[in-house]
């Protein structure tokens, strides 16, 4: 079976990114991208085993933005051979395919995007939280939801909003 395209067509016409989106960058600065909007749809700290592996830490932070021209799908030149961004894909428990993008030079994980079983792009693209420059403090880290806490390896604060696995109906659901 052919590898699915890493730059699928979104389900609906893609708007252009806002010019003042937040800068996404890798540790070595070889990759600089920009989020589609200044404010995210939602933020989640994920304690699943895959997020531990990708972050090399106790959990991974996902900051969700809608797809948009200039953000995601990524420009083909970025992921072409010799481009700065590498990727790989893996199947998820829910039967979808997750594409994981990283800097080819320093290895920083940058973006995760999910292609649903019907071939369309999930309308919440996850940017790895630590890769976002946020000089004006628009990201509300403290209100982030904690997901997949069933596999958490750190103590959970009673003040956190926690979910055993995913949040039903998506990351923005209260
Ligand atoms: Zn880098
Ligand atoms: Zn996770």
UniProtKB/TrEMBL annotation:
PROSITE patterns: CENP_V_GFA. Keywords: Lyase, Metal-binding, Zinc. Residues 19-142 form the CENP-V/GFA domain. It comes from the Eukaryota. Belongs to the Gfa family. This is CENP-V/GFA domain-containing protein.
